[in-house]
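Our consortium's second objective concerns turning raw sequence data into structural hypotheses that experimental partners can test. To show how far this objective has progressed, the report includes one record in full. It was chosen at random from the queue rather than selected for favorable results. The single chain below, 374 residues long, was entered without modification.
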Amino acid sequence: MTIELPPEATGVIIVDLDALTANWRALADLVAPAECAAVVKADAYGLGATEVIPALARAGCRTFFVATPEEGRAARLLNPDARLFALDGLIPGAEELLIAADVAPVLSNLDEVAAWSEAAKRLGRRLPAALQIDSGLNRLGLSAADVKTLAARPALLSALELRLVMSHLACADDPAHPQNAKQRAAFNKRRALLPSAPASLAASDGLMLGATYHYDLVRPGYALYGGQAFQGGPTPVSPVVTVRARVLQVRTLKTGDSVGYSATWQAARPSRIAVVAAGYADGFARALSAASGKKGGAVLVGGARAPVVGRVSMDLITVDVTDIEGEVARGDLVTLVGPGLTIEAMGKSAGTIGYEVLTRLGPRFARRYLGGGA
């Protein structure tokens, strides 16, 4: 893949919008006749909502989930015809923003239901909303008691246009976990008390649990961006993002020379060390640092794996290229994420998950978008 870069760029984040839309279509086919929405919160998981939302809309996606009211306003400007839901619910004082942007808050407690109903009554028209039931995750969501209150007092919901009743699974990545069936049963029991509305339980991993978890709509996020968190087998998606950074210098070390802050790594042999323009400000976690006797992260140099040595700093990493065949030179690009080095692999090496890898990609690298049907 040849990508034109500004000469001053220290790195590049390449987002394959064709792969993204193919992922959405594959998941939509998998869950049909349920609707496949898209979760585009946190700037489309760090990959750029400005490009991602229009590409998904052109592919046929109609329903999008954001986290915050401001994300909802931005998404509305990108897609005037979308159905938008804000997962953080009704932030006090955000009523006017949500109304103006036509974003439905996902209401998770009785105070939110009351406040949104009051806003509807002031306007003299019904306002769109979703209800989130807590089925066992114990984060946001209406408790069993809250659901019973709504069932006993239907007037609380009379001012609202109920577009969705939803919940969220805690252990969907593990298909053998008994919590999945427990939550599905709780969701069924509690939503039966509420007015009839489309239902949604599954996100990226939950949709892989089978048709009984699909209901009317699924909400993939991580899987759309190529993530493979489900432990029961591969999700039918392909990688979307490649991250590369420039070599700034190649150094020759003698046995015993140290590299980086605190001299935590010493060369056990004469070594070649490539200094690469990436650091924790760019999303390459400090936890990927290596010390003598302790492995850290890795990059790909010409397709071959090369280990990080020494401390990851804000702007730089140092990589042992002694065993790389051929010349490694100033200005070369090495791969931080890409074919052969997945977001899951980087996350595991850093003691975290691929979700965090994506959402921590920094703003300094140039961004290039491929395809997308624009």
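The partners drew two points from this record. The first helix runs from residue 17 to 31. DSSP finds ten helices and 19 strands in the chain. Both points have been shared with the crystallography group to help prioritize constructs.
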